[in-house]
Design a protein that fits this description.
Elements: E1 2-3, E2 15-22, H1 25-31, E3 40-43, E4 49-51, E5 55-62, E6 67-71, E7 75-81, H2 86-95, H3 113-117, E8 120-121, E9 124-125, E10 130-137, E11 142-147, E12 168-178, H4 198-212, E13 220-224, E14 230-232, H5 233-242, E15 249-250, E16 255-257, H6 260-266, E17 273-274, E18 277-279, E19 286-289, H7 295-313, E20 322-324
Parallel strand pairs: 2-5, 3-5, 4-20
Antiparallel strand pairs: 1-2, 6-7, 7-12, 8-9, 10-11, 10-12, 13-19, 14-16, 15-16, 17-18, 18-19
Length: about 325
């Protein structure tokens, strides 16, 4: 058995049958030459996966590397291999004078994981820049591509989490970044910036994320544990009558996004613990491991939060992180 504790940022004590690093396409083909029915897990940076228990399967650590840049009169095309670190890609692009990704700075994880989760922050989601996602089809044993329109992107969602789940391994992502850059500063504290440059936004986002989210090197966590729920306006109007101060972000004519952190904080979970698992005192959306936590404690605590939010607000919270037990994915 191989320890998985250092391979996921939540840092629960766990092991896996085997850990294999995929650092070339040839190795990828070799490992998946035949359709496998044995349990396996594709892992990037481990910042959005929590191993609750010893995993009875093989962990494939994505380590494909490489960045290529092409340009036309109107845009830059950035092709990045799945194993590249996301934040380092953002930094690299900015150093090359390629802007647009600054709102997505300091999001942990790899490039390959970014489209699966449709990562987003401060008013920007990666889907707006996706030109193409290349992936290895585990059944056809060949490389296939999906353009943005066919990735079925939604809030923290994509076709890779639904129809293609368990059938693919992303190998590279192609991003299209317009040369006609426009600042996105409508969200949160970014509204306080005056005529910002891309670097101003980058620095502000990095500072905000460092101030709000605990460093997983110091305390085990996987960032935002729950998705911000999207509810219909009828329910929101009803909630407003009892909690007029409830924050909201309109999605469309029928739906509103409300901050999960506000709901959790309102119910008094911020700072509370269940054994070695706690709700961070500065950010209610972050659950953490003090170093002694267990997978069972995490499930109990997360389920108690989910239940309380459902009972009080009639809102169903969904976990944003991928929870893995001995056999595979677990739902709350």
């Amino acid at each position: 058995m191989h320890s998985l504790t250092s391979l996921h940022t939540f840092g629960l004590s766990s092991s896996g049958n085997q850990v294999i690093s995929i650092d070339s396409f040839d190795m990828l083909q070799k490992q998946f030459m035949n359709v496998t029915t044995d349990p396996f897990c594709i892992l990037g940076g481990g910042s959005n996966t929590v191993f609750l228990d010893d995993y009875q399967g093989t962990i494939f650590k994505m380590a494909l590397k490489g960045i290529q840049i092409e340009e036309s009169d109107s845009e830059y095309l950035v092709t990045a291999a799945a194993g590249e670190n996301w934040h380092q890609l953002v930094e690299y692009c900015m150093q090359e004078g390629i802007n647009g990704l600054e709102n997505l700075a300091l999001i942990p994880g790899t490039v390959g994981a970014a489209p699966i989760q449709n990562i987003g922050a401060y008013g920007v989601e990666i889907e707006r820049f996706i030109r193409r996602v290349d992936y290895f089809d585990l059944h056809a044993h060949s490389v296939k591509s999906l353009d943005r329109e066919h990735c079925q992107f939604d809030y923290r969602d994509s076709i890779f989490k639904s129809q293609l789940a368990g059938q693919f391994i992303i190998t590279q992502v192609v991003l299209a970044l317009p040369k006609n850059w426009m600042a996105v500063t409508q969200y949160g504290e970014l509204q306080n910036l005056t005529a910002p440059t891309p670097m101003d936004i980058f620095n502000k986002v990095v500072a905000l994320r460092k101030s709000k989210l605990p460093d997983p090197i110091k305390i085990g966590n996987a960032g935002s544990f729950f998705k911000n729920p999207i509810i219909d306006k009828k329910l929101f109007t009803e909630l407003q009558q009892e909690w007029p101060e409830i924050p909201n972000y309109p999605i469309d004519a029928s739906n509103v996004k409300v901050p999960a952190a506000w709901l959790i904080d309102r119910l008094g979970f911020k700072g509370k613990k269940n054994g070695g698992i706690g709700c961070h005192p500065n950010q209610a959306l972050v659950l953490f491991n003090d170093g002694t936590g267990t997978g069972e404690q995490l499930l109990q605590f997360a389920r108690s939060i989910k239940s309380a939010v459902s009972h009080t607000f009639s809102i169903n919270l969904e976990n944003e992180v991928r929870l893995m037990d001995s056999q595979g994915l677990v739902t709350l």
